[in-house]
Amino acid sequence: MSSSSIENLFQEHPDAITASICAVLVFLGWLTLHLGWLGLSLFILPFAYVIGGYSSAREGLTTLFQEKELDVDLLMIIAALGAAILGLWQQQYSFIIDGAVLILIFAISGALESYAMQRTERSIRGLMSLTPDTARRLVNGQEQIVPVAKMQIGDRVLVKPGEWVPIDGIVVEGYSTLNQASITGESLPVEKTVGDEVFAGTLNGNGALRLTIHQPPESSLIQRVIRLVEQAQTETPPSQQFIERFERIYAKIIVISGFLLGTLPPFLLGWTWEDTIYKTLIFLVVASPCALMAAIMPTLLSGIANGARQGILFKNGAQLEMMGRVKAIAFDKTGTLTTGKLEVIQMIALNQDEAALLRVAAALESFSEHPIGEAIVQTARQQKLEWSSATNVQAQVGKGVTGVLDSQRAVVGKATFVQTQINLENETFLQSSQQWEQSGKTVVWVAHANKILGIIAIADTVRPTASTAIAHLKYLGIRFIAMLTGDNEQTAHSIAQQTGVDRVYAELLPEDKVEVIQRLQKQYGTVAMVGDGINDAPALAQASVGIAMGTGGSDVALETADIVLIADRLEKLEYAIRLGRRSERIIKQNIIFALSFIVFLLIANFTGHITLPLGVLGHEGSTVLVTLSGLRLLRNEQT
Description:
By secondary structure, the chain is of the alpha+beta class. It is built from 24 helices and 22 strands. Strands 10-22-21-20-11-18-19 form a seven-stranded mixed beta sheet, with helices on both faces. Helix 9 (273-287) runs antiparallel to helix 23 (572-606), helix 11 runs antiparallel to helix 23 and helix 23 (572-606) packs antiparallel against helix 24 (612-630). Residues 1-7 have low confidence and may be disordered.
């Protein structure tokens, strides 16, 4: 590895590198001590104390002098140094190892916290990469490439076919279809013409657009998405605030108690100073929070490993526990409850000749790159159909395609477009078309040789396991299940009926989804959000637990979410909740055991029924038992 690579590694993961070095030094100190090389061990271990404990000592002292508060970081330093001093005094050098292990545990905790902050920064960078840095500004009919940040209200912008829209604006000239999946999650491209608003981060289709900027670049929709993700991910949840308050109260009690124990007994109880210092150091050792820390982290790590075997990636150990508290779940529609891919759902053909219908439609749509056309061609290929090559093919953007097939005129497209070419007076086709459209499907009409051959229904299909997964979640006790989507009401309610969700929120922008999540949190407390698109990122960040689809999910959604369903298997949500509930039960059991054992050791210390070796043995033994208890979560949950 080159020097530059090592430097970059230190810059990107300084806390992880520090914890790793501390771990190596602790191991070498322990090894040399057990080999009888006392001098070498005493030379190595101070480096482990300094390297592993520097960050915690700095934070603890900063909190003490600036905020006038005591926290667990300072308590850890006092307990570790106390163990080292006691070890040197009593020539029980294994106590120095105990102090080094305590420091190592906190160093690992700091590395995990640092990783969480880096993940937030990566998700923000992913959002910012969606829009170009420059735009084509039009000045007196001439193009100028300028930074987006320098654009002003009233400027004109040219967006060519196939380009990403660089900034929010109003269309003043042109017609095109835009892929807005990154913003609204809509499965179909949206037609845009004069007077319509377009958003930065959306992909232009095959028409050139001229826009006028109606708001500053920093007020664009994608920038608002970025700010929402930043805000939601940096807010400390109530449970974390409670833990931090508890840690500071615990640290105050132990430090103050240790000080009183080390000074008052000679005057009040007639103890010798030797006995007083001895009992005080025992107190600091047995009261250190190692067992409490072991009550949580091994359990969560075991749960994470268990989830990984089941295709559930927990990015944050705390979210495993949070998953067990979920009371309501909000699902995105496109790519989450549905497959996110357009497919031919139904066909009605003249004289029931579906093969002839598909041949004509595929002959014209094979010249198109529109997702609807691709779905029709894919279906024809799956049925191993062959078709003649069409000539004089012309596409009317947003309407349909015309051409000549077998010397006869052919038309494929919307009803209003086909009607301009051929009379649509067919009662069966008209009724079926109306019913399909009301259920959220897109209807394609096909005509050839001056007669209607039939109609084809195109739709984004529901995942086969979606309805079963939601039914299991309700059986598990999830009180409310919602669907959030940028699609229209008809399509949304059609999907809802098929999947069994309790309520539909349709035609939502990313910020609207965040507002819905916030309302659900006020009503139900712990709320999970399941999504896959860039437009879901703010809601994933706002939710108590953000869950992303691993296969089809966007990079930003995967970075923002706390949990990833690696194979897009919604049925694994039930397993994740059961796993979270088990982890919460085990953590509570471990905490009760750890606190009870600390109290027992403290009582034994004050009554004089415990020596320092027994105190260390009890302290380390309780830590081992709690750790082994946490490993129970490695066993698969029976669902």
